[in-house]
Design goal:
Length: 760
């Protein structure tokens, strides 16, 4: 709510009236029976301010819709003609007056409530330039509202984002309502006195309205609309100053810079509305033509100062980056936006001495408070020696105390820190350098806590230091988890980089908001996992409960979790496919075991025959050649018969126990002989000289060993064959039985898990 200040009170610093309202933050006693307080929108700190309340009617039969009650001091009552016209002819996108009267001797107005979100809050929650299509929609609605006011010969005088309510949102579209007509003026054509007492907010005042006795005109409202649209299109206000004096001097002497508006049509609209000469400024007709797709001409820029502009400063200028600075806030902006040049300035003894001398002017000029002068004296003392990083921030803060909190030109508001964190995640060099600078000198945050929207940054510094110190301990705890694999990858992913520091700073700045955002991102990642990952679930759950940094760790390890989930899912799919195949194959295997029993036994007989045939050949050859004694030959023939019987019996029993299809070719003697028979030939056919030579040597050695066996002990082969085959048969049966049990156990486990899942 804009203050009402009469000219005899000396401007806009103090209304100079005695407060006679019995309450300043509650329903007036005379209306207490009619209305129930819902919320105090704004309490009156001075008589010049209205009490603004959200109320409901206490009558049970009345509408339950909330309303806005504004209760004014009788010396600062709104123009009654404005209220009468708004009540009689409500217009589109305009606040609707329901009732007006007196309560406890002071005027009040009752309006229909249009929600709790104004355009300022919407901008703070949606940083960055607004798309041209949405700017055009805002222009269309403001054009309708302001044109309707001017048709009723009403000048609003205080059109700002705070006084434009966002009543509802329809997708990307906004429904806007222009409110707060407390300083609006009824100005019919025959009104002889257009100059009124000072009203409004400097950042949205037209140049001709910056004097103590304002020129009230419709053109001033269109300038305010232009400032709002430029702020929407740029993502920031085109006047980068904050103190009233600096803002008024800037708008009075320089054209607002809208060159950063990328869309050409939107830039033309802003230039037309922000023309400093009121007679050349765009109005309702030009804006209507622009909305119709036309391009009205934009007059040339003006120079000079309108009447009533604050006089130029008589301070000595300070030269920085080729510019002359007499306004402290101008220098504060330049120092903040050019950190390398600022560092070079403060590192040079001569430049620091010149700066100290220039600052000395403000000990007697400007009417500063004792606290400001005390800080100035301390600051000049620090600048006599090479200062640290926090001294530079203290200097900028003293020069521009009304500038929103920022460092290196980047805002450190909650929205700014969010953008800074996003830039660090994108490897933006400027964002990463700023985070490293803050990590090296965190005391800067304490200094910045004195700037607007920097409240609480001293506490943020403490929380940030705690989070950064806690991070290595949490990493060690995560790495000790027994079910997490790839420790080297985990260590690399959880390194405390500048990007991680930025996320921790965001968490320290907005603990609840950042935690909910991290939890939502982690929940999204967890929802996309193909299979549960226990260690990832533990990080997410513990982070939501007590330690938000674990949520950040979960996000940093998201890729690791996705890979593990995919591996688990693949294993589960393979096991499920195997289980289904096993279930489907049960009947097939039963039929195959019956149908393939005889071929299986035939393969067993073939393998036993191939194994025993060399015995007869060797023993017979030994008998014919006479290389062995008759006693050895007879002993060998005597052993051959039972040995052959044992071989055949062992292989047939093994084949019958294992059965088809598991027996042949993977577990049969015939399969083993077939698989190994081609290895020597393959080795020789490789064509390499050493391979052929080694193969020939092995063959000669086998022939010599055979002759030795023929001459000395021809019974060794049958006995060795029986022992080896019997041992291998036992091993084959045991391995097949173990595999079958594991397969059955897997089937039972999967079946029980599916039953439990269905019950859950």
């Amino acid at each position: 709510m804009t203050d009402f200040v009469s000219p005899e009170d000396g401007g806009f610093t103090d209304a100079g009236r005695t407060e006679t309202r019995p309450v300043r933050d509650d329903v007036p006693p005379a209306l207490a029976r009619r209305f129930v307080l819902v919320k105090v929108i704004k309490a009156a700190e001075r008589p010049s301010q209205a009490v603004v309340l959200r109320v409901r009617e206490s009558d049970a039969g009345a509408s339950d819709a909330p309303m806005v009650l504004k209760w004014y001091h009788r010396m600062h009552a709104p123009d009654p003609a404005v209220g009468r016209l708004l009540g009689e002819e409500p217009g589109p996108h305009l606040e609707r007056l329901v009732e007006a009267g007196l309560a406890d001797g002071h005027p009040y107005q009752l309006f229909r409530s249009h929600g709790e979100t104004d355009l300022r809050a919407y901008l703070d929650g949606s940083p960055g330039p607004m798309p041209p299509a949405r700017v055009e929609e805002v222009t269309r609605q403001l054009h309708v509202a302001v044109s309707a006011l001017h048709q009723r010969e009403i000048v609003h005088r205080d059109i700002t984002p705070d006084n434009v309510m966002v009543e509802s949102r329809r997708g990307n579209a906004l429904d806007l309502v222009l409110v707060d007509f407390g300083v609006a003026a009824y100005r019919p054509d025959e009104d002889p006195g257009p100059r009124r007492a000072w009203r409004g907010k400097p950042k949205y005042l037209a140049p001709e309205a910056g004097s103590l006795h304002q020129t009230v005109s419709e053109a001033g409202d269109w300038w305010s609309v232009g400032m709002i649209l430029a702020e929407l299109a740029l993502g920031t206000h085109p006047v980068d100053f904050f103190s009233d004096e600096a803002v008024l001097r800037e708008t009075a002497t320089h054209d607002p810079d809208v060159s950063g508006v990328r869309d050409g049509r939107t830039r033309r609209l802003c230039e037309g509305l922000l023309t400093r000469a009121p007679e050349d400024r765009w109005g309702a007709d030009e804006v209507a033509a622009w909305l119709a797709g036309q391009s009205p001409p934009v007059p040339g820029r003006t120079r000079g100062e309108p009447p009533g502009t604050p006089p130029p400063s008589d301070l000595r200028p300070f030269h920085f980056l080729g510019e002359r600075h007499t306004e402290p806030e101008h220098l504060a902006r330049a120092l903040d936006r050019h950190p390398p040049a600022t560092a070079a300035l403060l590192s040079d003894a001569e430049d620091r001495a010149a700066l100290v001398e220039w600052l000395g002017q403000f000990e007697t000029a400007g009417g500063r408070s004792p606290e400001e002068l005390r800080r100035l004296t301390a600051l000049r003392g620090e600048l006599r020696e090479p200062p640290g990083p926090e001294t530079a921030v203290r200097l900028i803060t003293w020069l521009g105390p009304y500038r929103e909190v920022s460092l290196w030109g980047l805002p450190l508001t909650p929205e700014g820190i969010r953008a800074l964190s996003q830039g660090a995640r994108r490897d933006d060099s400027e964002a990463l350098a700023l985070i490293r600078h803050l990590a090296t000198a965190p005391e800067i945050l304490t200094v910045l806590s004195r700037r607007p929207r920097g409240e609480g940054l001293d506490e943020v510094r403490v929380r940030w230091d705690t989070l950064r110190d806690r991070w290595p301990h949490l990493v060690r705890e995560v790495r000790r988890a027994p079910d997490i694999a790839g420790l080297d990858r985990v260590r690399r992913a959880l390194r405390r980089t500048s990007a991680v520091d930025a996320r921790l700073l965001e968490l320290a700045r907005e603990p609840d908001h950042a935690t909910s955002r991290l939890a939502a991102e982690a929940a999204t990642v967890r929802g996309r996992l193909n299979a549960p990952v226990p260690w990832f679930d533990r990080l997410v759950d513990s982070g939501e409960d007590s330690e938000p940094p674990r949520l950040l760790m979960a996000l940093l390890l998201a890729g690791h979790a996705v890979r593990e989930a995919n591996e688990r899912h693949s294993r589960q799919v393979d096991e499920e496919i195997q289980r289904l195949m096993d279930e489907d194959a049960d009947g097939v295997v039963a039929v195959m075991r019956r149908m393939d029993r005889l071929p299986t036994l035939a393969w067993a007989l073939f393998g036993a025959t191939v194994l025993t045939a060399p015995w007869c050949f060797v023993i017979g050859l030994a008998d014919v050649l006479g290389r062995a004694s008759q006693e050895a030959v007879v002993t060998a023939w005597v052993q051959t018969v039972p040995a052959a019987a044992v071989v055949f019996a062992t292989e047939l029993l093994t084949a019958a126990y294992i059965g088809p299809p598991a027996y042949h070719p993977h577990r049969s003697l015939a399969g083993l002989l077939i698989r190994t028979s081609d290895r020597p030939a393959t080795f020789v056919r490789s064509g390499r000289f050493w391979s052929v030579l080694l193969g020939a040597a092995v063959l000669v050695g086998a022939v010599l060993l055979g002759f030795y066996a023929l001459a000395v002990a021809p019974w060794v082969w049958p006995l060795a064959s029986v022992v080896l085959l019997a041992g291998w048969g036992v091993r084959r049966c045991h391995a097949w039985r173990r595999e079958r049990r594991a397969r059955l156990a897997r089937r039972v486990g999967v079946r029980r898990g599916r039953v439990a899942a269905r019950r859950a």
